[in-house]
Every structure is written in C-alpha cells, then in structure tokens.
Structure to design on (467 residues):
C-alpha cells in the first residue's frame, strides 16, 4: 500500500458491516435506476439522420423542438427574475442573516454574483428586444449565447437535473469506481468513480460532468483536489459537440483522425496538468457537509467485481426516497435557471464581444505567430487569435476558423478548441457557480497550461498521421 493509500485509509472509514445483507430489493434498486441512468447518459444512440447521440440529448432536442423558439424568451424572463429577486434579497439583508430555505439558497448571494446576474439580465433583455449596440445583441454575440447556448442548456438540464441521481445515488458510481479505482489512481491520482464523470461528459456534455463532480464533492466522495482535477480535465465536451465543431470547420470527413487526436492529446493533458500548479497545490480536504467516499483498496481477497457489487448494493439500499430525489432535482434545476444562466449570458457575451470587436486577442496572441510558423502551421497570423478565444466560448475558435483556407490549420484549431475544456460561457461558469475550489484566475491558468501541452501534440499528429 502506498503512502497515499495509507493516508486515505486513515482518513476514510472502511466499509462497515451492514446490519443485514443487502437482498433482492437492494439489487433491484441498484440495477433498475443504474441501467436507466446508463441508458440516458452513457449509451450511444444513432438518430434517424445518422448522428451519434445519447438518450438525454434526444429528450432535450425533443423539448427544444416542442418549445420551438420559446426557450430563449423564457430564459430572458428567468434571468430578469433572478436579478430582481437577488437585489431584493440583498436589500432585505437576507445574505447577512443567512436564512435557511430554498429562496435564500437561490437568491441570497454575494454582491459580485448579484452584479453578474444584473448584467446577464440586461444583456438578455436587450438581445430579446433587439435594442442596444451590435456587440451585445449581434447574431455572433448575444444571439448566439441566448438562443443557442442558453436555450440548449434550459432544455438539456430540465431532464439532466432529475436523471442525474440515477447515476449518482443508486450504486452505479460505487460499482464503476471500485472496478477502476486502481487504474485511475495509478495514472491520474483519482478515485475510480471519476470514470463515470468522464464517460457522462464524453457522451453527454461537459457541464454534466461538472455538475456530477460538484455534487459528489459536496457529499464527501471527492476531495477538493480531486474535484478540481476532475472538473478541469475530465469534463470534456461531448462527442456530439465535437462532431458539430468538425462539421462547422469543414473537416467532417476527417472526424475519425480528428477525434483520435483529441483523445490522445486530452489523455496526455489529464496526466500532466494535475501534477502542475495550481492543481498540484490543492489539498485533499473534504466538503464540511461530509459524506462517505470510496475507501482505499482493502485487499480482503475478494475480486474487484465482488467488492464493487457489495458497495453498490449498500448504496442502493440507502438511496433517497422518490420525493427527496424530486426535490433535489428541482433544486438543482432552479439553481441552473436562476444562478447559471445569467452568468453565462454576462460572461459569454462579453467574451465573444472582446474576441469579435476588439484587437485584444490579436495583441495577446501576437507572440504565438512565430511559434505557429516554426511548427509549420499555415496562416499562422489568422490562426493565433483562435488559440485563446476558446476561453470565452467553446464555439468561438470554430467561428474564427471559418475564414481560414488551410484545412490543416482548421484541423488544429478545431482539435485544440475541444481539448482546452475551460470555456467561461459554459463549463467555466458552471465551475465558478459550484463549490469546487477554483477561482477565475486558476481557471485561466489551467486553460493556458492545457493549451501549451495539447497544441504541439495536435500539430505533431496532424503532420505525421493526418496530412
């Protein structure tokens, strides 16, 4: 047993013998919800158009089609309510009094968060009304954020908020975590249950992985360091979005080598980034609310499969009642509607506007031009701004790449944008809103580190194997 394992064993409670062996009821409570959760989040499905997606995305797209243009206006109204109620809570001293209850949890926030909610509400209202400067309400700024990004999140998390417990509360993470604990610990220094986060993100959406990670951290299953590492290295964009980026940048015919390149560079980053500051400086502290996490490998002679099944059954046997699950799902969804949407509107619109209407990204990336030229990347001057634009929004590099003629360069930009992971209009905003111990500057540093690590790998693969 390594020193890390010994520390974990000391800090984490070993499995306590159950008062009674989990029986048939526990087995059904484990299998049925877990299989439904896997079907919704983890099972690839082929649509009638031949696209690969997941059940959750199918439900989300069906809701979006049913609402047909109403999700953006609904989101605008919700952002306005969020700003008004947050200001009211602040003026009545609710934050200082620390009152309990759902209303206080949703609206008794810090002045900085109130400011972002107000800005998001104003941007949303101006975009809906078509009033204001182009950099706020334009088709490539406010309209993209409100009618594409936010509208998609409203429908996506309507289902995700209520279905996530199928994966997290009925033993699936205990089962998978036990099977993968050795592999994930040796390679990434993480508990095996992180494999579920990674898979849900890969097939579903990066924000799903962040939400799962945040909830598991709050319950005590991840430490501060582990939650920060998982959120910034395993909450990858979905394979569906990767296909969209490839199609938009006109490299869809290269999707297989494109996604293999993304996978290879992403794995290298997942190994190296956690071993560098700021992630390496995070401590293995646990959320005060506590909870159990998977114990260290106890080498009791049983197979990993047997131990994983036992832990899954114990978890399923103590799973929350349906009423509690519905309440928790509703709470999660309301937190997204009133807390996350205004942040995305404010941060996403501002970031895209900076990239589209100012030379700031050109100035910041000017030193990168000779580096790209040395790497023999065609149209280096046009490609350089796209290298950092992804920090504002995950789709912005693809938008900037449309004016580049070189297929090689578009391939590099598209692959890099998918591996950078830290997008302030979505994943970054979700992370800042959560209790995962990461701030804006740390997210920016991780974004740059991931860029420095993955860019040469992507360029090398493109030169050697693709073009």
């Amino acid at each position: 047993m390594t020193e890390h394992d010994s520390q974990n064993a000391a800090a984490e409670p070993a499995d306590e013998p159950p008062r009674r062996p989990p029986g048939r009821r526990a087995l059904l409570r484990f299998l049925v919800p877990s299989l439904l959760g896997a079907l919704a989040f983890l099972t690839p499905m082929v649509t009638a158009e031949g696209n690969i997606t997941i059940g959750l995305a199918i439900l989300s797209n069906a809701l979006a089609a049913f609402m047909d243009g109403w999700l953006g206006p609904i989101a605008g109204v919700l952002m306005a309510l969020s700003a008004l109620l947050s200001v009211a809570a602040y003026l009545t001293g609710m934050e200082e009094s620390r009152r309990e209850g759902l209303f206080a949890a949703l609206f008794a926030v810090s002045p900085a968060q109130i400011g972002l909610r107000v800005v998001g509400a104003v941007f949303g209202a101006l975009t809906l009304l078509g009033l204001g400067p182009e950099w706020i309400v334009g088709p490539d700024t406010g309209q993209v954020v409100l009618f594409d990004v936010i509208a998609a999140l409203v429908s996506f998390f309507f289902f995700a908020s209520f279905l996530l417990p199928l994966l997290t509360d009925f033993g699936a993470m205990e089962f998978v975590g036990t099977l993968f604990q050795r592999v994930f610990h040796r390679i990434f220094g993480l508990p095996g249950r992180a494999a579920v986060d990674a898979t849900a993100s890969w097939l579903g959406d990066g924000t799903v992985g962040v939400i799962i990670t945040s909830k598991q951290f709050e319950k005590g299953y991840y430490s501060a360091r582990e939650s920060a590492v998982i959120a910034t290295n395993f909450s990858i964009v979905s394979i569906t979005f990767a296909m969209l980026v490839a199609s938009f940048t006109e490299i869809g015919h290269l999707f297989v080598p494109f996604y293999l390149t993304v996978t290879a560079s992403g794995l290298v980053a997942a190994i190296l980034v956690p071993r560098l500051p700021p992630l390496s400086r995070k401590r293995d502290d646990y959320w005060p609310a506590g909870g159990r996490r998977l114990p260290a490998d106890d080498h009791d002679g049983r197979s990993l499969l047997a131990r994983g099944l036992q832990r899954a059954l114990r978890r399923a046997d103590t799973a929350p009642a349906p009423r509690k699950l519905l309440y928790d799902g509703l709470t999660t969804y309301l937190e997204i509607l009133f807390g996350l949407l205004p942040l995305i509107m404010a941060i996403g619109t501002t970031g895209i506007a900076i990239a589209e209407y100012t030379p700031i990204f050109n100035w910041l990336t000017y030193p990168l031009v000779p580096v790209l030229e040395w790497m023999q990347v065609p149209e280096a001057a046009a490609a350089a701004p796209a290298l950092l634009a992804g920090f504002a929004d995950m789709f912005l590099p693809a938008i900037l790449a449309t004016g580049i003629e070189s297929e090689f360069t578009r391939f590099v930009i598209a692959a890099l944008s998918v591996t950078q992971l830290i997008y302030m209009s979505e994943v970054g905003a979700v992370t800042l809103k959560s209790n995962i111990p990461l701030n804006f500057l740390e997210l920016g540093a991780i974004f740059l580190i991931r860029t420095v690590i993955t860019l040469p790998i992507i360029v090398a693969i493109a030169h050697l194997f693709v073009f």
